[in-house]
Amino acid sequence: MDSSLNKKYGLITAIAMVVGIVIGSGVFFKAEKVLTATGGNLPLGIMAWIIGGAIMVVCAYTFSIMATRYEYINGIVDYAEVSMGKRYGYYLGWFMSTTYYPTLTAALAWVSARYTCVLFGFSIVGSEALAITGFYLVLSYALNALSPVLAGKFQVTTAIIKLVPLFLMAVIGTIVGLASGMTVENFTSITKQVSTGNALFTAVVATAFAYEGWIIATSINAELKNSKVNLPKALVIGTFIVVITYILYYIGLSGAVSNKALMESGEKGAKLAFETVFSKVGGTALLVFVVISCLGTLNGLMLGCTRGIYSLSARDMGPAPNVFKQVDKATNMPTNSAILGLFFCGIWLLYFYGSQLTKSWFGFFNFDITELPIITIYAAYIPIFFILIKKEKDLGLFKRYIAPILAIMSCVFMIIAACFSHKVEVLWYLITFVVIMIIGKLFDKSRA
């Protein structure tokens, strides 16, 4: 084994990774929550999707500026190191490896299993759902660990497949809704009166999960051909595709069923909408596409998860770096890092199930792993953006000042929104975060 990764991915794969990781689960999983949070106020819900999307695009563009300058092992850790020093880079990398990647990957495995259960009529909180979740986790791990090139091709394929149900619903749902009057009715009626400010905060935080994942595309920085050109293009093009797709899909849903029916349908909301527009057979067929799209998202997240500890070990940081920086010659994959990433996913899946999918195993110590780790990343971006303003003196006005300032404001907005939305859950999450960082300190070999 050695510790180098080959240049094997091109621009199309990178764009597909951005689109494929972000699109595919959150838009189905969180659409009902956004609508419920806003009390069925469709314009307010669309505003939440626009704000969440704008935050993603601004942050992605700001990182794309840095991507034109740095090319190492793992984009986000590289940017943290260059801006704030090795110690900051280490702790951010430790958080990404032990919490961010595994929580999102575990949640996505469950979301994939959830829609599989809806497809076959199983309970989404029963033993079948948990078994399917575990199977999907292992399957995505095996695909990435044993054949990364095949995983890349799967990412491109699913990125295309997952656009099918979204665009069909966006176009056909809107046409049907305008013809029947359902779209106008949903835009002009409100199911439940809610506080506009709190509703908007809750809805925007919910969209954070749907929009998250684009930063994981930077994890293939060292494996991307001409990455200083292709990575920035992928981040900007990919995030714009995502925002437009989500908003059109959300409008299309309003033409399929009433806001009240969608809010009450829970996990079956997507199936109900598809069956209403495309008949029961067509709706079931499109739900198969939804499951495939979720698996594509899971594949992209696992791609980042398997490289998490490797990104630290390649810098001789973290636990047993000589072990976890080894790259298998046959697969050109950091196999040991991949195994540890799968282990972390399993731990967080158990917490997710025990805290949110069944009668709580942890009493009051519960928090949402689909949203709060994402907000932590937004907080971690802030000092990086400040240093970009301070250090990159040869950049123009827009790239040096306007873009990073907008990105900082966006991150602060997300933090405030999360506090309003999750309230006391934020405290339990922060306690967990501190414990994880203390464990990380035990392996801290960095020099600030």
UniProtKB/TrEMBL annotation:
Name this polypeptide is given: Amino acid permease-associated region
Compartment(s) where it occurs, according to its Swiss-Prot or TrEMBL record: Membrane
Spans traversing the lipid bilayer: 9-29, 44-67, 88-112, 118-139, 160-179, 199-222, 234-253, 285-310, 331-352, 372-389, 401-420, 426-443
Gene Ontology cellular component terms for the protein in this record: membrane
Main localization category: membrane
Membrane topology: Multi-pass membrane protein
Iron-sulfur as UniProt keyword: no
Keywords: Membrane, Transmembrane, Transmembrane helix
Signal peptide positions (record): none
One Gene Ontology molecular-function label: L-amino acid transmembrane transporter activity
Protein's organism: Pseudobacteroides cellulosolvens ATCC 35603 = DSM 2933
InterPro entries xrefs: AA/rel_permease1, AminoAcid_Transporter
Superkingdom classification of source: Bacteria
